[in-house]
Amino acid sequence: xxxxxxxxxxxxxxxxxxxxxxxxxxxxxxxxxxxxxxxxxxxxxxxxxxxxxxxxxxxxxxxxxxxxxxxxxxxxxxxxxxxxxxxxxxxxxxxxxxxxxxxxxxxxxxxxxxxxxxxxxxxxxxxxxxxxxxxxxxxxxxxxxxxxxxxxxxxxxxxxxxxxxxxxxxxxxxxxxxxxxxxxxxxxxxxxxxxxxxxxxxxxxxxxxxxxxxxxxxxxxxxxxxxxxxxxxxxxxxxxxxxxxxxxxxxxxx
Length: 254
Ligand SMILES: [Zn+2]
Ligand SMILES: [Zn+2]
Prior knowledge:
Layout: E1 3-4, E2 24-30, E3 35-36, H1 44-59, E4 74-77, E5 81-84, E6 103-108, E7 113-114, H2 120-137, E8 139-145, H3 157-164, H4 173-176, H5 179-185, H6 196-207, H7 222-234, H8 245-252
Helix pairs in contact: 5-8
The structure holds zinc ion (2 copies).
Protein name: N-acetylmuramoyl-L-alanine amidase
Pfam families: PG_binding_1
GO biological process, one term: peptidoglycan catabolic process
C-alpha cells in the first residue's frame, strides 16, 4: 500500500485524545459529498490540499460539532495512495452519531460533481485501505456505504454500486480474460437455487481447494452454503452465502 503519512500531508495535530476501538464489524465507504475537480486525476497535489481542507472543515465545526481531528480513518486518492487519517484502533467521527463504533470510515476522493466516476486508482486505494484496516485494525468483513442505516446520499451512486459488489479490485483476472461480461451474465445463486450453474459453482469451489460434499449436485443446499461462506471468509468478502458478481469473479480468478 502506498501510504501518505500524516507528516507527509502536514496534518494538524489532534486537539484531544482519540477513543480507542479494539475491532470493528468492518468498514464504511464515503465520498466527499461536494465538488472534486476533474483535474485531480492529473495532480496529486490537489489530493493533499483536499485532505487538508477536509481536516480543517472537520476541526472547525463544519459538521455541527468541532472534531478533534479529521473524521475519517483513512482517505483513498485517485493516484492509488492512501492517506492516514485517524488510523486503526481509533474511533472515527464520520459515520454519524451512534454509528462510528461499528465501522472504520474510509473516504474515497470522489465528488458529487466534477470527479464523480471513480477511476481504477481510487478503487485500488480504497481496497488497499480496507485490507490495511483489516490487518492493522481488526476490521471485520463488512463493507458498507455511509447510507446503510443512515439518511445520506453518501457515498454516491457509482461508489455505492462498488460497495454493494463487495468493493472488488478493478480489472481483476476474470475481467482481463474477458470474464467481466461472463460474470455479469451469471445468476445470483443462493440456497434453493437449482441448475447447471450450481454444479459450475461446486466445481469452481473444488478447484479453489474448497471441495463441496457432492460435486455433481445441481441443487444449492445448506451444505453448499457453508462451503461458500468459508470461501468468502478466506477471500475477505461479505460472508453472506450469496454467490453474486464479486464471489463469482473470485471463484473464476486464475
Ligand atoms: Zn459519508
Ligand atoms: Zn492523489
